[in-house]
User: What shape does this take?
Amino acid sequence: MATHEETLRAKIQDRSALVGVIGLGYVGLPLALTFHEVDFPILGFDIDPAKVEQLARGENYLAHFASEQITGAAESDSFAATSDFERLSEPDALLICVPTPLTSQKDPDLSFVQATVEAVARTLRPGQLVVLESTTYPGTTEELVRSLLDGAGLECGRDYFLAYSPEREDPGNREFTTSNIPKIVAGVDPASTALAEALYAAIVPRVVTLPNPRTAEATKLTENIFRAVNIALVNELKLVYERMGIDIWDVLDAAETKPFGFMRFNPGPGWGGHCIPVDPFYLSWKAREFGVTPHFIERAGEVNIRMPDYVVERLATALDRRGVPLSGASILLLGMAYKKNVGDTRESPGLEILDRLQDRGCEAIYHDPHVLRIPSTRHHPDKEGLRSVELTPDLLESVDAVIVVTDHDAVDYEMVRQHAGLIVDTRGLFRGADGRVIQA
Assistant: This one.
């Protein structure tokens, strides 16, 4: 009689294994569709019934994503989504792609992971593979997830299988997508590693196996801490060079000509997204358990967090020189998404800047072709429902200042240059001598 490992391996090899993806957002939906495109049957899970209904109708709720993929999946008999978590026993593989945010004290919030794993444990059956993809601190898979699943009475490595494989999504990146980014995989035992490797090998060109989930969890954090620290570095250099009368953009353009030893990062109004402002604090929190304070990481966080304040102060100074008080000034923000050409507002510096402007008595509005309406957010619930305004010459001429927050390609910057009286540029779009442009 075949073992559970042998049975599941055979299903993966002939692509009859039902793949369940829990969390159908920026990570889970592309993952589900990628598996579906190579002929795996898919059952997606999400606590938001609106997403489930939209998928059933073939509607796209990710602005940067190709609608044709969703339409094709909706028309297929082998793709379905549900909010019924009692059906978690049906898939052969369960891939957990739920958020891992921070608390207001910058501590890890694993409530979504815990609730999801508890739901999986209630329905766990022999022969299932469970993979956590959510970014988290080293030890989560083995210490939290396994302890909850073991409570179901099954033996890990024999009856069920458990691995960690961190997501590596970059929304809006047209060169690198789920299907061509190498996958990191580590199981809690050899059988779990082998099964997870076989599953992901069906959708990506390269699977990198690691000795344990802790190493894989640390790898993901390291990737994002590298970016966070380098973003902080160029943001701090921007502050220093501004005092010296040096254009940071000229410096970066010149430094980038060196063919080795330099990797370019651009400054901006802060940091944003579901990874960079969050992940470094997961390691910082866990490090304290071992009596270590990661000063470098925490300093990077301090620099990036203060950038919205710097932008507002640059604006205030520029307005003051024109005899316009910040309180009561009309300000147009260009961009509310955290990065260009996507509609994702999670941890966006645009929301932070909007907050600070309103706190200072400004009449602040925004234009963003990818964020027509600000969605519900954890830290800015009062901004929900605010709508993007139409960008016109009359509007640009009527406001006291324009702040470039996000450098979307779909914005007519030449119109902005021609009609805005004052531009605070955080993205280096408006270069050259122009008294109306303030770099921030």
User: Anything to note?
Assistant: Residues 142 and 188 are 7 Å apart (CA to CA). The longest strand covers residues 183-187. The chain has a mean pLDDT of 94.
